[in-house]
Design a protein that fits this description.
Layout (H helix, E strand, L loop, with lengths): L3 E13 L5 E8 L3 E7 L1 H4 L3 E8 L5 H10 L5 E8 L7 E6 L2 E6 L2 E4 L6 H4 L5 E7 L4 E3 L1 H5 L36 E3 L3 E12 L3 E5 L9 E5 L1
Antiparallel strand pairs: 1-2, 1-14, 2-13, 3-4, 4-5, 6-7, 7-8, 9-12, 9-14, 10-11, 12-13
Length: 222
């Protein structure tokens, strides 16, 4: 792991490279994002960093207590944990002047620090973006799974049906995982190997499209 932050998808547009090539880009707003706390292997059974993002008018008492403990005055809307694998040698927990922190390469993050993308990501770096895809409601097998449908000639009454789903008397039931019509979308989706096109103090631009609707929460990991 070389870097992590939270943000919201704000705009899908296009930009031009210095060579004049047009590329699709997505703008992600990343402020305010803070380091709220840590999970330790010896205490919690796993290692993770807790990030907070966004603002809200109403917070639960446990969330408020967690932010007060971290010294964060901003009422944060989202809290997310980033797991730290044991074999991640480039990332280590540290403690300086009574503050607990985490070191990613040469960058040190302590509890209560604001995470700025310009300090973590570089233009041209490769990142992965995770979000919840758009909900599309109930969809049939042609749209949901890409089925070809039934023949459209010689009086076939239905062209977009799934066909047979059963397996006769034995086993006399529909197997689990059978591809059928149902709710489509609202899945956790990760788009890998995107490139950082531009980075600022409160936003980051990535090449390509990312999952989710405008205003949806996304996780950026390098």
């Amino acid at each position: 792991m070389n870097g992590f932050t939270l943000g919201i998808k704000t705009q899908a547009t296009q930009e031009f490279t210095p060579e004049g090539k047009r590329v699709p880009v997505t703008l992600i707003e990343t402020a305010p994002c803070y380091v709220v706390g840590f999970k330790r292997q010896e205490l919690d059974g796993y290692s993770a960093i807790i990030f907070g993002f966004g603002t809200t008018k109403h917070m639960s008492k446990p969330t408020k207590g967690l932010l007060d403990k971290a010294g964060i005055k901003t009422p944060l809307r989202f809290l997310r944990e980033l797991r730290v694998e044991d074999n991640d040698r480039e990332s280590t927990f540290i403690e300086e002047e009574g503050k607990k922190g985490f070191q990613i390469g040469e960058k040190k993050l302590f509890t209560g620090d604001e995470v700025k993308p310009s300090e973590i990501f570089e233009v041209g770096a490769t990142i992965n973006v995770t979000g919840v895809s758009k909900g599309k409601g109930f969809a049939g097998v042609v749209k949901r799974h890409g089925f070809g449908g039934s023949p459209a000639s010689h009086g076939h009454p239905a062209q977009r049906t799934s066909g047979s789903v059963g397996a006769t008397t034995t086993p006399g039931r529909v197997f689990k995982g059978m591809r059928m019509g149902g709710r489509m979308g609202t899945d956790r989706v990760t788009i890998q190997n995107l490139t950082v096109f531009a980075v600022g103090e409160t936003s980051i631009q990535v090449t390509g499209l990312i999952p989710g609707h405008i205003g949806g929460l996304v996780e950026i990991k390098a």
